[in-house]
Design a protein that fits this description.
Length: 54
């Protein structure tokens, strides 16, 4: 299950994964998810901004 969550997050779903994690209070006590999802969201936002601007 953990691999599936991270695979979908890496495929562009970090924002949805983080939102679902907070709304359903699932995986919120695991530090890898609590810090990893927001970090991945920042990376994906940066890539998206770079792609749009250049």
């Amino acid at each position: 299950m953990k691999k599936t969550i991270w695979l979908l997050a890496w495929a562009g779903g970090a924002a949805g994964g983080f939102a679902g994690m907070e709304v359903f209070r699932h995986k919120t006590k695991h530090s890898i998810f609590k810090t990893g999802m927001p970090a991945l969201m920042i990376v994906q936002a940066g890539v998206l901004i770079w792609y749009v601007l250049f």
